[in-house]
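Before going further, it is useful to explain how the protein records used in this thesis are read. An example of such a record is reproduced below.

***
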Amino acid sequence: MTLKLSTMYEGYPGTSFPARPESDFAAGKLKTVQRTHENDPDVIPADDVSEPSTPGVSTPSPQPSSPQPSSPATGGDGGGTTVPPAGDCFVDVHAGDQFADDICWAKSQGITTGWPDGTYRPVTPINRDALIAYIYRLAGSPAFTPSGQTFSDVAPANQFYKEIEWAASTGITTGWPDGTFRPTTPVARDAMAAFLYRRAGSPAFVAPGVPSFTDVGAGNMFYQQIEWMKSTGVSTGWVDGTYRPLDATNRDAMAAFLHRYSNIGK
């Protein structure tokens, strides 16, 4: 079924691509699908379980009331203070967890600091503002002074105002035609691929004629970017052959994507 929306897609104003349900996130209509692990070369995923998890043990979904990184009051990803147990980088990320190495790498690089209570909240979807902050920090937190407010919903008082303005100035994001950025909307996997592709400089890449994923056809507006992710090893998709482009990206998987992205060409 093709969804018809009044807004065009993030990053492609004026195009004729079919719009995808961006607004469904904010409306609470798009639910996170139970899924197997985003493939890690050293991990054998279990079927039909949330990530990260132990086969046969259900991982509860994050509660809507959990504070998000974009809230200045939480201090999330802006200054964790609680010291985790020895050997763990966060109190809820333990040695042996699927993405523990990636999350601890992200912390060691200053890409994430977690919340003051010492948690990382790995299975919470990452919001658009927090992802931009991650990408900005991965780029080395370059000196940047915003020249003005680009998006109507990201004011100078916003926790990640500078980072979002930097992303807009470098072409990583263009926002929506209505002038918004929608900072607290969870990042969908297709948009995440587009952000990383643009951060890489939109490298010349010829996508294969035969799609790598069963749910991302050649006509998908982000087909090239997602195939680039596949070709570089940043993403491998799920064992059922899908990429699940409209799923929200969890914080643990995002750490893995950024870690792999940082190793491109090495």
Summary: The CA atoms of residues 3 and 21 lie 7 Å apart. DSSP finds seven helices and no strands in the chain. The first helix runs from residue 23 to 27. Confidence is low (pLDDT under 50) at residues 1-75.
